Amino acid sequence: MDAPLVIRPKLWLLLGAIAAIVLVPMALSFVPNPFEGLGPEERPSRFFATMWLLLPILMLVAAWRVLAWTSYRATHDWIEARNMLGVKRSAWRDLTSAELDTPVGMPPAYELRFGKYKVRFIARHHDRQKIQALKALIAR
Hints:
Elements: E1 5-7, H1 11-30, H2 46-67, E2 71-74, E3 78-83, E4 86-91, E5 97-104, E6 109-114, E7 117-122, H3 128-139
Antiparallel strand pairs: 1-2, 2-3, 3-4, 5-6, 6-7
């Protein structure tokens, strides 16, 4: 039996998300509170108010990316999506359409549709050679 094709997001994505989770709280400790010591008619600094808003959002997006980390394993019979919530396996015989030539949608992604279930590989997050190997695997 051939070894399954393993498709994972690129390593820079994981390292960037972990760096954001670690560095954002440190950055927030250096950014002064824009609302501290304001009088009744004073306005906070736009720059610091924006930083207080965007840094926690950046950390939440990075945490979501780490929690939603999904790797895929494909064989001649099925494709399997693995994440923290479990494993979802779809047989190739249930495949209704495949968009693996050029990315579609926003963000640009490669898609496999299994009836109502859809597997999306965001183009910037996955290696193009792995997607081409998946395309060759489906063609068999």
